[in-house]
Amino acid sequence: MLAAGVLETPELLEPKNHDILGPALAGSVVAGVLSYVSVMFLTSYFETEKLTAFAVYCLVAGIGSAALFTLRG
């Protein structure tokens, strides 16, 4: 993600894109902060709790995805 952001930054800084510079910067900052908070929460959660809840989530998501793709055929 960082490499993609670095690669696209010159295009974002072009004069024709100045109107989206603010929202793009705000979105990047919010995404970065929330990613950091999510990783910190999950790291502390998995250090103190078992992975049973995550296993159940994976099972339900897998079954749901398989059912959805099977029905869409």
Identify the overall geometry.
Answer: flat
Q: What is the structural class?
A: mainly alpha
How far apart are the first and last residues' alpha carbons, in Å?
Answer: 32 Å
CA radius of gyration is: 19 Å
How would a crystallographer describe the biggest sheet? none
Number of helical segments?
Answer: 3
Low-confidence blocks of residues = none
Q: What's the total count of β strands?
A: 0
Strand composition percent = under 5%
Average residue pLDDT: 90
Q: Tell me the helix content.
A: over 70%
Run of helices and strands? HHH
How would you characterize this protein structure?
By secondary structure, the chain is mostly helical. Helix content is 82%, strand content 0%. The protein contains three helices and no strands. The longest helix is centred in the middle third of the chain and has 28 residues, at 21-48.
Q: What is the compact description of this entry?
A:
This protein is mainly alpha-helical and about 70 residues long. The protein has helices spanning about 1-10, 20-50, 50-70. The protein is built from three helices and no strands.
List keywords for this structure.
73 residues; mainly alpha; 3 helices; flat
Task: Give the helix/strand layout.
Blueprint lengths: L1 H11 L8 H28 L3 H21 L1
